[in-house]
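Subject: design request, 288 residues
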């Protein structure tokens, strides 16, 4: 059967009660974080890590990714054109950010707004803090930020897949118009023509990243080359994300005149880091 297009009119709320309910997006976030925890539990047990490490990791990473994702969206994407430009030295700033002017607005989480790049930065800070306060004190393990991420990213792939499914249920962050047979008409967002379902594309590369990193850990024992799994993850996820941004609609108006959009600029440091980690890991002898 050849499809002409897919009409997408999913209800973003799974269970309704009162004026709100349980939303698919929030539920999928929670399930994704829990599955990531279960994967870390298995990996840490495999390497004989202390039993309380996974619980500490769960607390730090959950807070890190949620706070980071919130801050990232509000600081990276909430710039709006203003009729009253601000003059700073010799420049006229035509965009203003309400979250910087009034940080208390960050607490209005019910208004939505989470950024995957912000979540990545939040995870890095949380992992650094976790290692400094807890993991590095156990001298049996040569832990570091990269050591944590070599294992964490395997579960992160699953979490990211479910988050993109949540974006699909919300009919948000989709691509440009397309004539391809799997184009989606996002009715709830007011669309009348098919668009690229980039949420599904991103789910696919996250699942590819999961399979690759899972096999690298269990079959290739690549965790013995610190940084190799993490670097591979960074390249799969952020190179693909960089390329997909060319067919995604701009999330904010200020991106319209940019050579590369915000998502692409934020992806570049992770791509460079990924290349560096892989080259460095391949240049060292594997740990016993």
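Subject: RE: design request

Done. Sequence follows.
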């Amino acid at each position: 059967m050849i499809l002409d297009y897919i009409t997408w009119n999913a209800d973003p709320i799974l269970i309704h009660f009162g004026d709100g309910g349980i939303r698919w997006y929030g539920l999928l976030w929670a399930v994704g974080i829990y599955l990531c925890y279960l994967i870390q539990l298995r990996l840490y047990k495999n390497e004989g890590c202390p039993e309380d490490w996974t619980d500490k990791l769960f607390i730090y990473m959950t807070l890190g990714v949620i706070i980071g994702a919130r801050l990232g969206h509000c600081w990276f994407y909430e710039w709006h054109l203003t009729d009253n430009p601000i003059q700073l030295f010799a420049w006229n700033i035509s965009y203003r950010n309400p979250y910087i002017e009034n940080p208390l607005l960050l607490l209005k989480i019910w208004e939505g707004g989470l950024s995957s790049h912000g979540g990545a930065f939040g995870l890095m800070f949380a992992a650094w803090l976790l290692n400094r306060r807890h993991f590095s004190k156990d001298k049996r393990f040569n832990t570091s930020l990269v050591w944590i991420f070599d294992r964490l990213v395997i579960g992160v792939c699953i979490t990211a897949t479910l988050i993109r499914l949540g974006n699909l249920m919300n009919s948000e962050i989709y691509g440009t118009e397309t004539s391809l047979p799997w184009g989606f008409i996002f009715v709830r967002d007011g669309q009348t023509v098919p668009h690229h379902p980039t949420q599904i594309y991103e789910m696919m590369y996250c699942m590819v990243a999961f399979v690759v990193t899972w096999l690298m850990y269990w079959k290739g024992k690549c965790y013995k080359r610190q940084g190799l799994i993490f670097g591979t993850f960074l390249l799969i996820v952020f190179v693909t994300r960089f390329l997909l941004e060319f067919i995604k609609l701009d999330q904010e108006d200020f991106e319209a005149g940019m050579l590369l959009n915000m998502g692409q600029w934020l992806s570049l440091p992770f791509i460079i880091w990924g290349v560096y980690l892989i080259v460095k890991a391949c240049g060292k002898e594997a740990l016993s």
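The helical segments are 24-46, 53-76, 98-101, 116-133, 145-169, 198-218, 228-244, 262-282.
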